[in-house]
Prior knowledge:
Order of helices and strands: EEHEEHEEH
Number of strands: 6
Strand content: 35-45%
Number of helices: 3
Number of domains: 2
Largest sheet: 2 strands, antiparallel
Amino acid sequence: MKIILRLHTENGQWYFQHFHDKNQLVKMLEEKGFKIIKINWNKYGATFQIEAQKIKALSKDDYVKAIDFEFNLPLPNNKRYNRHNEMKKVLKLT
């Protein structure tokens, strides 16, 4: 298993890229309540398509954890996006 973490900047905005292998993606989708229907994976894993069907809802706690992560990512100089609480309020998760 090879995980590559890259930090990129585009138009002054920093963001992370995390590259997954096929097994990681399948496991992640199944853990999040998806049934894999079809996978097209190119030879080197640079491009892929996954068709999946949502068969199980996530718990409120799972949604809160995901929002806390995605909307409060670290930035340079020990800063963070700090938008997670706003998003939870909009989505009525607080």
